[in-house]
Amino acid sequence: MTVKKMITYRPVWMGLAILWIMFFHSDMSLPFPLIYLLMIGYGGVDIFMFASGIGNYYSYLKDEKPLDFFKRRVLKLAPAYIPVILVWCIFSVICNGLSIWAVIGNLFGVQTLSSSGSAFNWFITGLIICYLLTPYLAVLIRNNSAFKNVILVLCVIAVSLCFMTDERMLVLMSRLPVYVIGMVFAKYENANIRKKAPLLIGGFVIGNVLLFLSVIRATEYLWSYGLYWYPFILITPGMCWIISEISSLFDKCFLSKLVSVFKFLGGFTFELFLVHWLVFSIIGEQIYVMPYPNLVRAVILVLSIAVAFAFNLVVKKIGKSNQDSSKNATRT
């Protein structure tokens, strides 16, 4: 399997990732080992960062125009983000006294960088930072040798360590190395990924061991020192390759329908993220006092998928309308 073939299963990674994140945010009560998988569900974010690094590498280098790249990203995300963040801000102003400056910060997706007021989610700010860095990183990675790209990843890890003990920023900055690794993978799309299998499997195993030991032996340091997140720098590339290999095998038998389900979910992950997080951030605390809280959470997850799919259809229609308007304006 080449890296390019592996990347064809990127929607499957993303479909699995968003379900993993949704279950993590649901905070269900489950028996071991399911509760452990639920506890580390934030790892789905690292899959997204890895997949985004790959996609943005290709997206930017197809024309190497920074403003056009930013415009494409904004036009893709804004139609979904703006309605959701407006609902969240209105609720937060009425119920939690959110300040006007925090509202503005959330509307622009940069509130995580501020010490005032609460942010909708740090992931939005993380996306913006990645988009701003992409024009520089993509060209640098394309022109670098393999050795220099390894050094680049190590430098990004070192920079992220500067935010150690700052939980608010470390949760964001510790994900940047995975994004850069995704861009490096995209560069070597014609490489035979199976030749690097020992390296990928080794990183996957070592990362999981470190993560498990951190969870059971260093609980008090998980957030403060990024022990929840740094192991996924080793885990994520191998995890995505394993998912691709399994999906390739499933595609050859009756389990191909299962692969199609995850590909389907991978087609509207941003809307799924926004919808389920909006619901859980608004009523999450109330669920604890409801009868059958696990059932309530499960119903919310199922309804979130249905609502997000419908929301995605609306967003696509708006996006198509904007594209048509832009084309007409250009012709005029």
Describe the structure.
- The structure is a single chain.
- With 332 residues, the protein is mostly helical.
- The protein has one domain.
- 76% of the residues lie in helices and 0% in strands.
- It has helices at 3-7, 10-26, 34-39, 43-61, 66-96, 100-107, 122-143, 146-161, 167-173, 176-187, 197-217, 231-250, 256-265, 269-287, 293-331.
- Helix 5 runs parallel beside helix 14 (269-287) and helix 14 runs antiparallel to helix 15.
- The N and C termini lie far apart (47 Å).
Number of strands: 0
| Cα Rg | 20 Å
Element string (H = helix, E = strand): HHHHHHHHHHHHHHH
Summarize the amount of helix as a percent range: over 70%
Strand content: under 5%
The major sheet is characterized as: none
Shape: globular
Note poorly predicted spans: none
The mean pLDDT is 90
Count of discrete domains: 1
Classify the oligomer. single chain
Structural class, judged by helices and strands?
A: mainly alpha
Q: Figure out the total of helices.
A: 15
The termini sit apart by 47 Å
Summary keywords:
single chain, 15 helices, mainly alpha, 332 residues
Outline:
The protein has 332 residues and is mainly alpha-helical. It is built from 15 helices and no strands.
Topology:
Elements: H1 3-7, H2 10-26, H3 34-39, H4 43-61, H5 66-96, H6 100-107, H7 122-143, H8 146-161, H9 167-173, H10 176-187, H11 197-217, H12 231-250, H13 256-265, H14 269-287, H15 293-331
Helix pairs in contact: 2-4, 2-13, 2-14, 4-7, 4-10, 4-12, 5-6, 5-14, 5-15, 7-9, 7-10, 8-10, 10-12, 11-12, 14-15
